[in-house]
Design a protein that fits this description.
Blueprint: H1 3-8, E1 26-28, E2 34-36, H2 37-42, E3 46-52, H3 57-64, H4 67-75, E4 83-89, H5 96-99, E5 117-118, H6 123-131, E6 138-142, E7 150-152, H7 158-165, E8 180-183, E9 189-190, E10 197-202, E11 208-217, E12 220-231, E13 236-240, E14 250-257, E15 271-278, E16 286-292, E17 300-305, E18 311-315, E19 327-333, E20 339-346, E21 353-354, E22 357-358, E23 360-365, E24 368-373, E25 379-385, H8 396-399, E26 402-404, E27 411-418, E28 422-430, E29 435-443, E30 446-453, E31 460-468, E32 471-479
Parallel strand pairs: 3-4, 4-5, 9-15
Antiparallel strand pairs: 1-2, 3-6, 6-7, 8-10, 10-13, 11-12, 11-14, 14-15, 16-19, 16-23, 17-18, 17-20, 20-25, 21-22, 23-24, 26-27, 27-30, 28-29, 28-31, 31-32
Length: 481
Amino acid sequence: MNVRSLLAVPALLTGLLVGAQNQSWTATDIDGNSIHLQDYLDQGKTVLVDISAYWCGPCWAWHTSGIMEKLYHEFGPEGTNDLVIIWVDGDAATTSALLHGATGSQGDWVTGTPYPIIGPNGQGNTLANLYGITAYPTLFMHCPGANAGVEIQRQSTWQAFFNSWRTACPAPFNNGANDATLMRTESGVLCPGEHPKVELYNQGTSTLTSATVKLMQGTTVLQTVNWTGSLARWASTNVSFDNVNVVGTQTYTGVVSMPNGTADEHPEGDEEDYEYSPAPQALLATVQLELKTDNYCEETSWKLYNAANQVIQQAGPYTANTQDNTVFNYWWNLNPNECYRLEILDAYGDGFCCSYGNGYYKVRSGGVIIAQGGQFGAVAKAPFAAGAVVGIEENSLEEGLSMFPNPTNGTLNVRFNMTSAATVRIKVLDLMGAEVMTMTKGFGTGDQQTTLDLSALANGSYIVNILADGLTATRKVTVNQ
């Protein structure tokens, strides 16, 4: 079993209770503050304890997924004030430098983390031993009035994670029958014709059928929406302010009041700040995606959505081993001025840079990069607006590629065009994706030709893939001897 798989195995069974003494531990965080777990519980709050280690890849993937930060923002002190999160580095060797990203660490665990961090000077290791964990990461939930903490499992989205444990610790989230709140929207990027919107969330125990929602800039009310509908508990919906047009980057405040026509019984979380900006504008309606996989390409896939939220292009998952650390290029001729959304998906939830290879994606138009990345959790989203005209941005390798004769009795001629001298890698794959032959050779500029000897292959169909100077092209060939 490789290290990646080993660290992903849960340490304990779901629901396993730890010692009652864990309800009353005290430790010092990296800022010198004394953290008393029982104090939070006495205040009626749920406490999540994330025990990780600075060197742990799955811990880093979970930490950078944004799930804990999302929960803390919505339900912590800046939101409904029902939840406390504490992050613990349980390794005895951890130091402040390692937590800040020194050599040997997965990255900077401190910057951008809004909740307490416990680790150096043996503080984190003492807690890890107290909980008796045997693998990282391991998460525990503590409820007011309970005798012990309960282990909970990670999930791929914040909604699934929240759903998995919230009903087991309901008291801190029972804040009244009529309790509306606003959540931070997933993206503040607006496509042409879109208007700002806020996410209305029903935290109350009664169905939410009406609320007053305002969008403000400073002390000025830009628009008031008297929302009506039907939201069950824990459900949410978007409220759009169609009279507000965003020019440039703007910061607004959303305010919700009068859920079901009455005063909010728990006004914490009734206000939320939002930043909106126009989507990146492509120079042309011809757009290119350049994507490089990491060491686990089978986890990677992508989808391109149009303005109607329909998938119009997609690829992946890629073939393990044979397509690891490989550059792929795709070209799209899109509808001029329409808005699109590219989603890069990682099944493991840790993106494809930089712990297990230096993967990346770059979205270009007219030679200009309009979106790029590689470090993300389960999904990276890149909205953009297509340009006004279709341009000429072609894959010269694809355009100039020919293979003959096809079918072949064993000898296959491969002809292609090189815009610059480079090393070319040619791979032959069977239809299951297994690599059956490979050749690497340097070529000069202009029209090139080489010969592949496929006589050792069984009769059937194969995929021939050529990678040269960041471009890739494929053809299907048939061997018939």
